[in-house]
Structure formats: C-alpha cells, structure tokens
Amino acid sequence: MNKDCIFCKIVAGEIPAKMAHRANGIMAIEDVNPQAPVHLLVFPERHVADIAEHTFKGSADEIACLMEIAAELGAKNAGGFRLVVNTGPDGGQTVGHLHVHVLAGRPLMWPPG
Ligand code: AMP
Ligand code: ZN
What we know:
The chain is an alpha+beta fold.
C-alpha cells in the first residue's frame, strides 16, 4: 500500500467508494466524477503506478485479468463501451495507481481531446 494514494485508501476502506466488482485482487468502483452515464474504474488492489511500470514488472497475467474484468463490465452495456488507460502527464493521468476507465451509456467522440 502507498499511504498517499487515493486508490490504495479505497482498497483499505479508508475512503468510501461505490463498488462495482471485487475479486482476486482486482477492484472496480464508480468514478466520483463520471464522464458518461456508466464510468467505472478497474484497478489492482496492489499499488502499481501506471501501465508502463506494470509492463516492466512482467505481470502479464494481472494485466490480462484487469482487461478481462473491464471488458466484462463494459459488455453489460448493449451499445458498446470504451476502455481507457491514461498514462503520465501527457496521457492525462491524475491518480498514480494503475486503473482502466470503463466508459459507456452514450456515443463517445473520437478522437479524444
Ligand atoms: P485519471 O485521470 O485517468 O488518472 O483518472 C482518475 C479518475 O479517478 C478520475 O476520473 C477521477 O474522477 C477519479 N477519482 C478520483 N478520486 C476518486 C474517488 N475518491 N473515488 C472515485 N473516483 C475517483
Ligand atoms: Zn495505490
């Protein structure tokens, strides 16, 4: 656990969140500032800073589980969905704990800003 990390605090129950899924070290919560009618965040319970750090640690199984859960949650929306992994300052990452955004419930524009 990273004591300064919002998502680690959610994992520890120190900050409340609306849980959408929790199993096998992976958690999904509702985003507090939703950008679409469905906006979930899927992340590993253990602290990993971002997808680049994760790749270097060679934990492909965990990435696969993360994407599988994100896709399962997204697929509940008949109209389709989008998975997003913002990474680093130029990627728009504001929380330094790896997470996958699941966006759905309205047509999403492309390209993103
Ligand atoms: P990103 O900007 O890609 O790092 O995404 C971080 C996301 O976390 C943003 O969409 C925020 O709205 C969301 N967020 C920040 N704090 C919380 C919180 N306490 N509970 C739920 N979502 C949060
Ligand atoms: Zn963390």
